[in-house]
Design goal:
2 copies of one chain form a homodimer. Helix content of chain A is 34%, strand content 23%. In chain A, helix 2 packs across helix 4. Chains A and B meet through strand 9, strand 10, helix 7, helix 8 and helix 10 of A and strand 9, strand 10, helix 7, helix 8 and helix 10 of B.
Chain lengths: 461, 461
Amino acid sequence: MSAVSPVLDRLDKNLDQSLERLFGLLSIKSISTDPTYAADCRKAAEWLVADLKLIGFDASVRDTSGHPMVVAHHDGPAGSPHVLFYGHYDVQPVDPIELWESDPFAPAIKEVEPGHKVITGRGSADDKGQLMTFVEACRAWKQVHGSLPCRVTILFEGEEESGSPSLKPFLEANADELKADFALVCDTGMWDRDTPSICVGLRGLVGEEITVKAADRDLHSGLYGGAAANPIRILTRVLADIHDKDGHITIPGFYDGVEETPSQILKSWETLGETAETFLGPVGLSIPSGEKGRSVLELTWARPTAEFNGIIGGYTGKGFKTVIAAEASAKVSFRLVHKQDPKKIRAAFQTFVKERIPADCSVEFHAHGGSPAIQLSYDSPFLAKAKNALSDEWPKPAVTTGSGGSIPVVGDFQTYLGMESLLVGFGLDDDRIHSPNEKYELNSFHKGQRSWARILDALTR
Amino acid sequence: MSAVSPVLDRLDKNLDQSLERLFGLLSIKSISTDPTYAADCRKAAEWLVADLKLIGFDASVRDTSGHPMVVAHHDGPAGSPHVLFYGHYDVQPVDPIELWESDPFAPAIKEVEPGHKVITGRGSADDKGQLMTFVEACRAWKQVHGSLPCRVTILFEGEEESGSPSLKPFLEANADELKADFALVCDTGMWDRDTPSICVGLRGLVGEEITVKAADRDLHSGLYGGAAANPIRILTRVLADIHDKDGHITIPGFYDGVEETPSQILKSWETLGETAETFLGPVGLSIPSGEKGRSVLELTWARPTAEFNGIIGGYTGKGFKTVIAAEASAKVSFRLVHKQDPKKIRAAFQTFVKERIPADCSVEFHAHGGSPAIQLSYDSPFLAKAKNALSDEWPKPAVTTGSGGSIPVVGDFQTYLGMESLLVGFGLDDDRIHSPNEKYELNSFHKGQRSWARILDALTR
């Protein structure tokens, strides 16, 4: 018999107690963005420290200039990997409270249809319910085997819903203590109810605001039109030049570091059944706008983009004004993948723009953020092990996905701890996180615990 | 001896009295945009009617729903042309009053340097001083010859500085009474202190606002970027496509009706010494932005343009927001020349835009104004006669110029009275019209009167 089987049995048996514990944590109003609830945030941190100590972790509340962190350590067998598990105990505000069908801080089990139960309450899915799946897996393993299968460090933050101001300094100050072989992050979702997913790619971001300046004042377009440079014309020319007719980005060097996604990964994405219609239909669109010949999942998970997030120039009020503006500006962002270098992308873009500015005009740049993409190797042994473990637990095999956006903590782990992250979570798209009537599937909570037990087992074999 | 010589002598002799009369008109606070001065506007109209009656005109104040018009008629010899002279008796407000060196409604002669005198006061150049040059020419002619050399109708409006709301309905209602062989409009300027000018081309205008609509809501550029259509990208593509690299406008059919300016006209413009540096330097630019190989004067006087007067879309506040907007819009205007048809231009532009909108997106159009260009034939005999007359009066020969902007009354004369206009005026660029310390050169007032006498003489020979 494998080491994990009795742990899975124990998790099945312990489900009611694990729910009681979760309800205890869910009833704490740890809304991080509202200073009124600062004491509740600390209470949640203390609750977690006490619970982790019961399991046998060396756990403590660690003060920051904001809400405290929870850090906990547990040894593992010599030679086993060292994992850092990350979650957050803070929650979103509950407004508008009148739309909640029950008290957001009085968690309950609700049977939405026969045999289909959910856990209701603020934080049930984001992220208290998710982080407790890992804690329960550790507890059961310890109960059954008297130890954990590998060395585990836990980091719970209390400011994820309010911009994580303390995270970077805390990671920097405690890098030696927190650095592990890799991180496990439980703050994402399943592909669907039956299909677990591991997110291995998160796009990076470079934001740049450009302001084109022409005449030293606004001009009358009758008197000067045809002679004087129009900054909106220059700006639209620059922006239009960025994409060719097939949606490729034309900035020299832009694709340096971009890799082709392995064909078996692309094939696995094809099996997910996501099409341009299913992806874009809900927002009223139907035609992918990016590089031709690539699926919407590849476009959003594994390809870089140039997007224009804002543009303004000249007269924008009601009616008309025959003006040639003195300046016009745009906010441009690039989503990066793989090994694209934010600094090189920014420099290449600036050069691209400058080459298109007439000699009697000028351009100013303002940088807004720059972070590289996160990309776990598709052939990482940890990934393969975790996928197999998840596939053993759920009705359908686990899929490797990407994410078009970024999850800052993953980049911070890379930057400050030099550590990759495996993103595994059990949320569903309809969990209503950040909204009234947040819920977490009872199935997610139960099979999530079992999934972590399987993953811990797999990672150490 | 010609008929005009004694009239010119009389004008020289009458200069002081003509100044007294002008001062009388200038002292009336006929600020049309401010209802406080409605009675002053009527007073100015009545003053003009009284003065025209003294000359022998059949003159009357004609009520409108706004400030009144002045209409006056005087017969001419059988077979002589019938001219309609236009000017406006209303003036701009005087704010900021504290910047005036003297009372704007206490006109005076000021010697700015030895031998160089100006008439100071609101309306001195725009347009009371100018319209009185014509009235004085008629008065002197009548005094000398007991008649006028041609049939003259005069129209003075009192709402030019406040949008001329009554002009179109008045022209329409009184078309039979006002229609003449052509109009003389005295509301423009000289090329320079020594060089009179006749403006024969005024560009037309088509304004169009376009709004590109993509998704039915704003999207997160991380989650949707690369898949969802971005309306700013579509809009900038559309706008960038309008000009080719040589500044030509690529909209099919756009140049239909555009004529090449005769080479002798282009040569005469070359002699004016206006260069890209002299034209654009004062506003901080130096490189003509329009069709390559054409001078700034040709570009602004005789070539059509497409200008982008405003653009807005997405997030335009401080900082950055990674949004893909639901829509983006731009205000586009076309300056038209010669026989370009505003309706066809608008339709061609709409087609051009629609062809560039992806099938899952849409575009909306909002029309803002449409008027054809005004172009007097370069070989009109009236033009040649008027040019010769002006050349006889001033140190340098008269030049035929264009104007990049439009003067609405000229279009209205064309539309409602089917009549071309000859634009002759004696203002200078430094007259500070619409600003504090407006002035009119004493020389402009005196030689302007003489110029009109010569023009009336020339037109009837």
